[in-house]
Amino acid sequence: MTGGPTPGAPSAAEPPRDPGAQPERTWLAWRRTTLTCAVSVALTARVALEDPSSIAVVAACLGALAWVALLLTAHRRIGGLARSRPGTMGAAETMGTLVCVLVLVGVGGMMLL
């Protein structure tokens, strides 16, 4: 009987990815996110310069580290969009991004003190 694929036979090649606006939207979303974080860190650094208390300085340093980590993740994801079938974010990248966002939320909370 014929009609089904034979076991062990190579599968057909995947069709090329639709070159629509999805990669551009993803690129823009990562850029907006890193720009927002940069502005938040700049405001935190400004507060730390005006009132150099230990909380403000620690918040500015933590915010800067979180921003750099988020920037590196964004560059890695944007670079991955050039492939015909970009992979999904791994668990480490997802958790790293989540930690960066939570650190920035904590920095905002520290600035309220």
TrEMBL record:
It comes from the Bacteria. It is a multi-pass membrane protein. It is found in: Endomembrane system. Keywords: Membrane, Transmembrane, Transmembrane helix. The keyword Protein transport does not apply. Pfam families: DUF202. InterPro entries: DUF202. The keyword Zinc-finger does not apply. This is DUF202 domain-containing protein. It comes from Streptomyces smyrnaeus. The lineage of its organism: Bacteria, Bacillati, Actinomycetota, Actinomycetes, Kitasatosporales.
